[in-house]
Amino acid sequence: xxxxxxxxxxxxxxxxxxxxxxxxxxxxxxxxxxxxxxxxxxxxxxxxxxxxxxxxxxxxxxxxxxxxxxxxxxxxxxxxxxxxxxxxxxxxxxxxxxxxxxxxxxxxxxxxxxxxxxxxxxxxxxxxxx
Length: 130
Fold this sequence. Notes:
The protein has 130 residues and is an alpha/beta fold. The chain has two domains: 1-70, 2,3-Dihydroxybiphenyl 1,2-Dioxygenase, domain 1, CATH 3.10.180; 71-130, 2,3-Dihydroxybiphenyl 1,2-Dioxygenase, domain 1, CATH 3.10.180.10. The strands form two sheets. A four-stranded mixed sheet has the order 1-4-3-2. The longest helix has 11 residues, at 13-23. It is built from three helices and eight strands. The radius of gyration is 15 Å and the shape is globular. A hairpin with a 5-residue loop joins strand 2 and strand 3 (41-48). 21% of the residues lie in helices and 39% in strands.
């Protein structure tokens, strides 16, 4: 058993794909036409960090409730965690790309950490070695 995918609700597919692939360096695994349960067109868009097994399904918001969840999928908490080998280089690359960091990097028992916002406004921990 394994977690295969989880969803991040976004405003639109293409800007989200660009953020995750060009800014964070994820791979675009799939971008296929699909349909909603009631037959309307949508896309099946899956991204993931290189070498990762678990992917992220980028889902365009459909309706008011989903629009309201954009950027607040976990009620303002950090809900996503991205571990990198070169913490400082990743921060430098993300800063140059305009990523918003909500605090300064700090060292915790589990390693170095800084909170950043994705394109939708969700909070992520960027984690690196201690």
